[in-house]
Amino acid sequence: MSRAGRAGARRGRFVVLEGLDGAGTTTQARLLAEALRADGRTVHVTAEPSGGPVGALVRQVLTRRIAARDGAAFDPAALALLFAADRLDHLSVEIAPKLAGGVDVVSDRFTLSSLAYQGLAVGDVAWVEALNARAAAPDVTIFLRVRPEVALRRREAASLDREIFEVSTFQRRVAASYERALERLREAGEQVVVLDGERPVPAVAEAILEEVRRQRPRAAGRRRSR
Fold this sequence. Notes:
- By secondary structure, this protein is an alpha/beta fold.
- It has one domain (13-214): 3-Layer(aba) Sandwich (Rossmann fold), CATH 3.40.50.
- It has nine helices and five strands.
- Helix 5 crosses helix 8.
- It is globular.
- The termini are far apart.
């Protein structure tokens, strides 16, 4: 393709779905991709932690397959660093090339999750935000708001496996942390939409699709700002 052709190519839309564990982000990412494909779009679905080498390490930490020395809890700051490293690798290797090729990318979690979870665990959300300063801003972040007790009930019904961040008391704190993190994204000028994630799955899917159809791709490589 010529340089002029590349310059005129339409960049894909970068859509992120967020919410507490159990909010339904994985299901809704799949449904959104199916709907966008029906619209004639090429869509790539991904998630964080990513499927890359750093993401694999993060997953092992979250499922307690890897622990700190002498069986101690894994340091929250170290985990925040791993998430940030995985995000940059995910962005450069998988997300950015797809977007540049005109493919819509739907990610199940991105930077907002780190601001909520790692910001709370570390106790310094500004530091976590700084770690992720080089992560591109999505075209839209859609947050599926559900009550912590509803999210936990869904998770317990779906699986017996429990990750580090699936304790009900902690989830209530995470819910509050998400609300604060959402405000940080808004203050930074990012496009954020909050939807009722407790509605029936088809109704939530329809609301997400309506929001995404309104979006237009932002400039390539736009970074987060404060």
